[in-house]
Amino acid sequence: MAIATINPATGETIKTFTPATADEITDAIERASTTFESYRTTAFEQRAGWLRATADLLEAEADDVAKTMTLEMGKTLESAKAEVLKCAKGFRYYADHGEQMLADEKADAEAVGASAAYVRYQPLGVVLAIMPWNFPLWQAVRFAAPALMAGNVGLLKHASNVPQCALYLADVIRRGGFPEGCFQTLLIGSKEVEAILRDPRVAAATLTGSEPAGRSVAAIAGDEVKHTVLELGGSDPFVVMPSADIAKAAEVAVTARVQNNGQSCIAAKRFIVHTDVYDEFTTEFVDRMKKLTVGDPMDPDTDVGPLATEQGRTDVEVLVANAVGAGATVLTGGEPIDQPGWFYPPTVIGDITPEMDMYTAEVFGPVASLYRVGDIDEALQVANATSFGLGSNAWTTDADEQERFINGLEAGQVFINGMTVSYPELPFGGIKRSGYGRELSEHGIREFCNVKTVWVG
User: Fold this and answer.
1) Most buried residue among 20, 173, 177, 208 by CB atoms closer than 10 A?
2) Which residues cross the membrane (predicted)?
């Protein structure tokens, strides 16, 4: 894929970029390695000041940055601005709490025969971040803010269709005061990743993306015995039980499905509804999906913009056609919109069976699949019948049912009576083929630290 800004609302190529040469990549790695040796000794207070200055810049420039994000990947302008402000919040969160999170942890010195015993967290070094296009700033900031606060330095290999966002992030971090080499964007294709990851100056890697990409990076890192964090997507369940507020559940379900034009790893994708409230929920849900406005993502009245790439829309079309061909029922949508750009309408499909690809695959677009279940046991069985395990949602006011879902849903996150959202304060990540490791909270900042045991006799 060419490194280029292509407007997904029109298909027009706006700007192309020349990939970094081998020498430029080598220079960037050396710059990062050299910078780390001095940056790792900077005080937490200094790093926190730079994080806050970066947050100030993001807030001041939010309108312009949001337009760039919308132009490059098609999210609505409103959601793009919200993403920029969320990034500012993420930087401030680690500025405020990072030092405390990485403070020495006392151990029981007497129990181990020492005069002092504790754990110290120290940065690993140069970390390669391989990031996707769907949240072009937030995905990278989820890594960058804690990594920089911990004393690590970063190399960003971003998706090829959001180069301007990638360059902006490195630039705003530099303008926030961080030394040259602390965070660099490499405009490269995927074929250059292996050599970078095998370079002895690169200590670790984090990837958010597809399962094949995750397998590749994990295999290389495993061969080099380097630490990785992987977030590889999900097919999140959204379970609705009879005690739920059905109108509220249906309202939130729409947002949970079409957020970011349906292109979110933690978007609810499979709606599993108890038979006693199935018809009521379906009527409300489908009616709300029909009323959504699809169009120019720069227009404030637009609810759903285009998919980010032409291939992404094709992938959605294939999954829907496979389901319909095997007997699924389209309740709304289901046909590509005949206009320039890569638009796909909000779609709801019922009568999904295990023989259909949609039963287990992640549909990365505004397509919801509906499942009717008879009880909580069947709801859990359907919810867990996927190789993914990232987020999950359950709607019930019954305390016993809530506990069953909290314990029984196979996912890294369970949200009861609400949609899955990433917060700096909470760990983010998955199980099964959704990956391993955690971002955000104290767990995220410690992922790229040496957890060093100290024993003093």
Assistant:
1) 173
2) none
Q: Respond yes or no: is residue 449 known to be catalytic.
A: no
**CB of 85 within 8 A of CB of 62?**
yes
Residue pair 58/89 in contact (Cβ under 8 Å)? The answer is no
Could you say which of 72, 231, 362, 401 is catalytic?
Answer: 231
Q: Determine contact, residues 440/422, Cβ cutoff 8 Å.
A: yes
Length in residues, the chain = 457
**Alpha-carbon gap, residue 130 to 150, rounded angstroms:** 19
Contact 146, 87 (CB under 8 A): no
Alpha-carbon distance of 354 to 250, in angstroms, equals 24
- Cα–Cα distance between 118 and 98 in angstroms, integer? 18
Whether this model's pTM surpasses 0.85: yes
Cα separation, 263 vs 159, in Å, equals: 14
Residue where the block lists tokens 């969320």: 86
In terms of Cβ atoms closer than 10 Å to its own Cβ (0-12, 13-18, 19+), residue 13 is exposed
Residue appearing with tokens 């992404």: 312
> By C-alpha distance, which of 142, 105, 114, 137 is closest to 127?
142
Distance CA 78, CA 70 (A): 9
Q: In terms of CATH, what superfamily is 4-232+432-456?
A: Aldehyde Dehydrogenase; Chain A, domain 1 (3.40.605.10)
Q: What is the dihedral of CA 41, 44, 48, 50, to 10 degrees?
A: -20
Give the pLDDT confidence of 256-299 residue by residue, as tens digits. Answer: 999 999 999 999 999 999 999 999 999 999 999 999 999 999 99
Q: CA-to-CA distance for 270 and 130, rounded, in angstroms?
A: 28
Which among 87, 165, 182, 265 is annotated as catalytic? 265
Judged by DSSP in three states, 422 sits in: coil
Annotated catalytic residue 231: yes
Question: Per the structure block, which two tokens stand in for 448?
Answer: 């790229």
Asked if 449 and 122 touch (Cβ cutoff 8 Å), the reply is yes
CATH for 236-416 is: 3.40.309.10
> What ranges do the domains of the chain cover?
4-232+432-456, 236-416
pLDDT per position as a tens digit, 86-137: 999 999 999 999 999 999 999 999 999 999 999 999 999 999 999 999 999 9
